[in-house]
Amino acid sequence: MRPAPEWNGSGDAFRALPSVDELLREPALTAGAWPRPLAVEAVRAALAAARAEIARGEPAPGRPALIERVLGDLRRRSRRSLRPVINATGVILHTNLGRAPISEAAARAMTEISLGYSNLEFDLASGERGSRQSHLRELLREVTGAEDGFVVNNNAGAVLLVLSALASGREVIVSRGQAVEIGGGFRIPDVMRQSGATLVEVGTTNRTYISDYEAAVTPRTALLLRVHPSNFRLEGFVHQVGLDELVELGRRLGIPVMDDLGSGALIDPRSFGLGAEPLVQESVRAGAAVVCFSGDKLLGGPQAGIIVGKRELIEVIRRHPLARAVRIDKASIAGLEVTLRHYQRGEALEAIPVWRMIACPVDRLIERARTIEAAIGSPRVQAAPMRAAVGGGSLPGQTLPSHGVVVQPGPAGSGDPAVILARRLREHDPPIIGRIEHDALWLDLRTVEPDRDAELVAALRDLIC
Ligand SMILES: *Cc1c(COP(=O)(O)O)cnc(C)c1O
Q1: 238 and 131, same structural domain?
Q2: Residue in 180, 226, 230, 233 to alter for ligand 1 test, most ligand atoms within 8 A of Cβ
Q3: Which of 162, 182, 307, 395 is the pocket-test mutation for ligand 1 (most atoms within 8 Å of CB)?
Q4: Which residues have C-beta within 8 Å of that of residue 195, sequence separation ≥ 6?
Q5: Low-confidence spans in the chain with pLDDT less than 50
Q6: Which domain holds residue 211?
């Protein structure tokens, strides 16, 4: 047992510490008008830490140091938990960093609808009750080519709802290579069980043929399901059945095809040197009866799960009790409407940040990286080529040429210098998130909006100069 502090000659240091009340009366603390319980907690914590230091034989902190610590603690405690960050990871759809940033117009619409009342479920023409879905239905038909659409709060909810409404108590046939985990604990076999449908896996992990599906069809088959393998890639000796073939089989046997696209691009990423991602319009045109995809992946809108397809099936989905449980909120409807209008007007590449980032020519990134390098003027910050990724369960394994700055860490006391540098940038306001490679911190500019470059420069100057 550690001896009581008075016995090792530090009693005076303890007695010299101010009391809780004395510290609370300090002008520097009263000036902030901090909520009293918060201030009391911060003062107690600072005094407890000081006593622990004295007990360890360290010198007692002076009053100014104590006050500084209390203020720092108060600022931390009263800071908002969910805050904007600068994403310099080069991963455009970074799930942990909030996936798709939305367009300014979409964000404005979300704010405006949240701040006041709206015609969310009110038909302005008749003055009677309306449907929140009415704001998106026409637009979805127009941009996807589908007969009808229905929107819920995310794509996981969409998949659960569709399976529950169309296949509960019956069977759904899926290729073994597509009975996958999407991430965040969303596994197709588990969702299937939750919906009350029975998963019938066909083929092998790497190869599935149309004959495998056909052999598995029974009178209890409700759906043929295709799941886009959005976060992994099978390579080598592989074969998956094309949507056309699946639709053809379904037509012959009278079984609808459901297509879970995951990302659901409306613009072809191949125009930007990326690989193919199934397009929503193509899925619809190929004859999938139900297609679902996320609002906040490649679509570039707010979180949402979008279901489009044949009118009579959408009607069954709409009436299912789960539809209410996974209902989309009014702000997301507002943001989604504006996002879809960007596509309708052919302005998606300029207006939607995700597509702006994908489409940005690398020359522009090189120019920005060199400007940042010059503004800091330290050998520790250098412009360098790097590879960015789309991420967020789209185009796995594929990268885009990019450019950014590599920051060499300075000498650190103890611990990994690059890790310490990364932490200090995370502690910046706003936090800056990069990635560590080759013992340095890489800041990729493809995911940083150009109007944030000045903040990057200021933060790096703070750190380095
Ligand atoms: C991302 C994804 C989902 C889940 O979508 P959320 O919008 O994150 O709920 C479902 N299926 C596939 C194939 C996905 O890629």
Answers
A1: yes
A2: 230
A3: 182
A4: 160, 163, 164, 167, 168
A5: 1, 3-7
A6: 103-351
